[in-house]
Amino acid sequence: MDTHVRVLAVLHIVLGAFGLVAAFILMIIFGGAAGIAGASGDPDAELAMPIIGLTGLALVVVVGALSLPGIIVGFGLLKFRSWARIFAIVLSILDLIWIPFGTVVGAYGLWVLLSRDTERLFDRSLTTPP
User: Fold this and answer.
1) Is the bond leading into 100 cis (omega within 30 degrees of zero)?
2) Which site in 16, 39, 61, 75 is 20 to 30 Å from 121, CA atoms measured?
3) Distance in angstroms (rounded) separating the CA atoms of residues 13 and 116
4) What's the per-residue H, E or C state across 62-121?
5) Distance (Å, rounded) from C-alpha 38 to C-alpha 48?
6) What sign has the CA pseudo-torsion 38, 42, 43, 45?
7) Per-residue confidence of the chain (130 residues) as pLDDT tens digits?
């Protein structure tokens, strides 16, 4: 089961990295849109620029905040930390709503992490020295 845990860890890291890239792309798109609106010289742009900027900022923060835990839990799973198993179970449950990739990763994660062999693997990591 240690191979499955490592695969799940890499999947969480990759999905989290894709989320951070998406947040960066959103930042560029909304920043560019606010810049274009400001450069237009239209008097209505003064009202639109803060709205576009705040909307973009909110989206970037939300996407980044949802992506970062996947990366953290992925590195914890690679090191077989007991906190990472519990955190990954919660994250896998939450991933089920992100159709289609999150659903697949969430279902796979629950199957891997709720297995008795995996539980013993993480318990063993507590008793063996690094």
Assistant:
1) yes
2) 16
3) 24
4) HHHHHHHHHHHHHHHHHCCCHHHHHHHHHHHHHHCCCCCHHHHHHHHHHHHHCCHHHHHH
5) 8
6) negative
7) 889 999 999 999 999 999 999 999 999 999 888 888 888 777 778 888 888 889 999 999 999 998 999 999 999 999 999 899 999 999 999 989 988 888 999 999 999 999 988 888 888 655 554 4
**Distance between CA atoms of 57 and 4, rounded to whole angstroms?**
36
- Nearest one of 78, 85, 89 to 3, comparing CA atoms: 78
The answer, yes or no, to whether the previous bond of 130 is cis (omega within 30 of 0) is: no
Which tokens belong to 63?
Answer: 């996407």
Tokens read off for 40: 């237009």
Number of residues assigned to the chain: 130
